[in-house]
Amino acid sequence: MEIREYRKSDENEVVELWIKCNLTVPWNNPQKDIKRKLQKDRDLFLVGISDGKIIASVMGGYDGHRGWINYLAVDPEYQRKGLARQIMAAAEQRIRGKGCPKINLQVRAANNAVIRFYEAMGYRDDNVISLGKRLEEDGPVSV
What we know:
Strand order of the largest sheet: 1-2-3-4-5
GO molecular function, one term: acyltransferase activity, transferring groups other than amino-acyl groups
Protein name: GNAT family acetyltransferase
Pfam families: Acetyltransf_1 (PF00583)
InterPro entries: Acyl_CoA_acyltransferase (IPR016181), GNAT_dom (IPR000182), YpeA/RimI_acetyltransf (IPR050680)
Keywords: Acyltransferase, Transferase
Strand content: 15-25%
Helix content: 25-40%
Number of domains: 1
């Protein structure tokens, strides 16, 4: 798998991947999330390519205090081949390169398989509760 930075022309393929991987929710419009991401640390938004097709993505960030991982996805046809580890390692390396001391991420509590994946990569439960507040309503996903 070739890993490269996201390009604007990747949008439809990336959104389709996220939908296929069940990463989208009604309150987060992926097109708006992409537009927002491209305004900050666009070099931390990575895609994985195989045979000219986007098969993986990860959206990293660094706010000056903590790094963040969002939208890690691998096409179900390509899962269990180490590709998620590969694209995560690339994101971690880039985030570390910005001087980041720690990366946080959020996983839905019921998603045990994903929690086990991250634990195998060295992530631990920080024993905190994640709180959120919508400042803007995104509306439905459009593909």
